[in-house]
Amino acid sequence: MNWGIPMTERDLDNLDVFFDAARRQAADPSPDLMQRVLDNALAEQQRLAAQAAPQARPQRAARGLLRQLLSAIGGWPAVAGLATASVTGLWIGVNPPAAVSTTAEAYLNSGADTYLVDLMPGFQFDDMAEG
Amino acid sequence: MALDALSDVDDEALLVLFANGDADAARSLNLRLTPRAFAQAMRMLNNRAEAEDVAQEAMMRLWKIAPDWRQGEAKVTTWLYRVVANLCTDRLRRQRSIGIDAIPEPEDDKASAADGIQDAARIKALYAALDDLPERQRQAVVLRHIEGLGNPEIAEAMEISTEAVESLTARGKRALSALLKGRRDELGYSDD
Predict the structure, then answer these.
(1) Cβ-Cβ contacts under 8 Å for A46 (sequence gap 6 or more)
(2) Which of A76, A95, B130, B142 has a Cα-to-Cα distance from A111 of 20 to 30 A?
(3) Least confident of B77-81, B106-110, B118-122, B186-190
(4) B160 to each of B37, B136, B140, B164, how far by Cα in Å?
């Protein structure tokens, strides 16, 4: 062998001896690796399934009566508005502004006559019994 | 056996089944692709423990990308070659940066003792020389000459042109030859 010669195609071909040795090297995965990879795969599938599930969850959560009522009126923000209106109403009842008092008095204590208007004078309950 | 039913299904279709929660598809993909990923990593790193880590990580990435896999864009095997090659390159870079010069003894459990010793010496010399190559040259040489891929496939895996692959492998082989030349006598080289 003459290693002193410049690089030739034959030298490059000789690399195949090294490559062949590397190719012959056992490169089978261990059963343990196969199992680990499969475990990862199945765990990932479960994670994907769990990710898809939350879309169904709100419907189940809305089963309670209070929850149904809440969702019907628009949730907790609507309850806040409702509470404000209630407190305001109570306050007006306890300490009514002058305008409200006057109007209320006009309706309740005016002494005005109450009129009874008979829209169908010819109609009597007896007629129904007969017919 | 349920896996037989999937033997004719291509990798992309199996990925879709996998993303839909089909456990048989997971098993089938594992049987098809993990040995490939491991063999490639083993040939790039020449270290069983590291190669197992790389193969597991590459397959984990495949499981995670399955729901978003774009059909028809790249072959699953080509994508896997790319991921394994990049993971191996990262590891080799880290090894170099902390100055590990110990090349692990190659494993050989089937060749005869004499052949085994010679093979082991060659493999050790080869990987020592590969360690001195630039990363891209090493990647191209391993994929072409040890993994046995064609240039177009390597080009796709490395995201470069076929001409660039040819240039990388040619330069890589020249450098390897030069590096190994000095060690041939001590390797008891007698094969030509």
Answers:
(1) none
(2) A95
(3) B106-110
(4) 21, 11, 11, 6
* Whole-angstrom distance, CA of residue A34 vs CA of residue A32: 5
Exposure of B137 by Cβ count < 10 A (0-12 exposed, 13-18 middle, 19+ buried)?
buried
Q: Which of A38-42, A50-54, B2-6 has the lowest mean pLDDT?
A: B2-6
How many Å lie between the alpha carbon of B58 and the closest alpha carbon of chain A? 10
CA angle B95, B96, B98 (to 5 degrees): 70
Q: In the numeric block, which tokens belong to residue A113? A: 């006559």
Could you give the CA distance from residue B184 to residue A23 in angstroms, rounded to a whole number? Answer: 19
User: Do B107 and A2 meet the contact criterion of CB atoms below 8 Å apart?
Assistant: no
How many Cβ pairs closer than 8 A exist between chain A and B? 127
Furthest CA-CA distance within chain B: 58
ipTM of the complex: 0.80
A23, burial (CB in 10 Å: exposed 0-12, middle 13-18, buried 19+)? middle
Q: Return the DSSP state at B110.
A: S
> In terms of domains, do B178 and B123 share one?
yes
Domain termination site, one of B37, B67, B100: B100
Q: Identify the domain containing residue B56 by its residue range.
A: 1-100
CB contact under 8 A, A41 and B59: yes
pLDDT for A55: 60
Residues of A with Cβ-Cβ distance to B181 under 8 angstroms: 3, 11
Which among A16, A21, A45 has the least Cβ separation from residue B26?
A45
Average pLDDT of the residues in B2-27: 85
* CATH number of domain containing B119: 1.10.10.10
Looking at this protein, which amino acid is placed at residue B48? R
Tell me which of B18, B33, B59, B115 to substitute to probe the interface with A (most A C-beta atoms closer than 10 Å). B59
Contact between B30 and B49 (Cβ < 8 Å): no
